[in-house]
Amino acid sequence: MPTAIITGITGQDGSYLAELLLAKGYTVHGLIRRASTFHTERIEHLYQDPHDPLARIVLHYGDLSDSSQLTNLFYEVRPDEVYHLGAQSHVRVSFDMPDYTGDITGLGAVRLLEAIRKSGVGCRIYQASSSEMYGDAPAPQNEQSRFQPRSPYAAAKLYAYWMVRNYREGYGLFACNGIMFNHESPRRGETFVTRKITRAVSAILAGRQKTLFLGNLEARRDWGFAPEYVEGMWLMLQQEAPCDLVFGTGETHSVREFVEEAFGYVNLDWREYVAEDPRYLRPTEVPLLLADPSEAKRRLGWEPGITFRDLVRIMMDADLEAAGLPAPGEGKRCLTDGRLAWLRKP
Ligand code: NAP
Ligand code: GDD
After folding, report:
1. Out of 83, 126, 153, 265, which one is annotated catalytic?
2. How far apart are CA 190 and CA 277, in angstroms?
């Protein structure tokens, strides 16, 4: 059975992708950072005792800043596929830490590409490129749209994007860019706006928070459901030839609409709880992201099924449950890994 390396396995996408690959029979090797506390919460349910010779998930300490460890990893594991998801992935934070973001999000990809090239392992690689690279390019954005990055994060991702294309063309690597628009889930990092909102609504209901401070409410994003997007990553590496593809829903909504939907779900009037705080504004904002994902549909048959409303509700239900609160209405289901699964027991 195939072997894959996932960088960023402890992140939102890494955890869903690990689930998907294990279900498909892969052996999965994940790169994790050393930290003074455990931070493997998202993949805890997948843990297998490394003493078990049949264990199909193996974690390796390493860092995207350390090329020698990356090269060793390729010699040791000799993977068939690599999913490069590790990054400093927060756009607002990238303005505070531009050179760190350039190093990890940009150069990190190059270190990985070099490790593959030097080790001579004939594997395929997926690069987690981002719709953020389009910046303020006119919508809808597709594979032909111009990149106009408006953050250190976007510029770093764009560098990695072009290096992937260079290694594909120069060295014949099977290297793909998935240009993914925003995708969210109950596992989304707590400081991204969607999760910040759904957690806050639950905390307000539980009486633990009074106000939700947000930045720009008018920014628009094309928000999809993360488990459907990791399926797209896998499909990209199963093609006959490598290419670059856009993944998104083809719908755009403002942060304000997300707020209205989340508060409305539990019958709260958001205007009583939301306040604007300039500290969450960005020096340069990306005003409107809207995907044209028709090429991914044509080539891969990839099409997302979860709508904006469903996404808000899936996230709300999970955060209400985490806060020990009952969800409004029972029997909600969500699509994970192509199957219907209960979010909570019916
Ligand atoms: P995430 O939850 O922030 O996860 C990022 C992962 O990268 C974490 O596992 C993190 O490890 C790891 N990482 C950070 N710095 C590292 C370093 N120096 N060395 C090794 N690993 C490091 O991000 P995500 O939402 O799953 O996104 C996955 C990838 O897709 C990212 O590259 C992101 O930029 C890109 N992307 C995401 C979206 C989206 O909407 N989610 C859209 C387009 C592109 P720790 O757990 O130790 O922090
Ligand atoms: N995080 C955050 N916090 N964003 C806020 C807030 C707030 O309090 N208030 C308003 N926003 C606005 C941001 O200004 C932005 O326009 C929008 O909400 C979405 O912000 P994030 O959820 O932080 O995501 P992002 O779009 O900047 O970046 C995400 O998507 C990219 C793909 O387009 C990240 O996952 C990136 O890694 C990813 O590449």
Report:
1. 153
2. 17
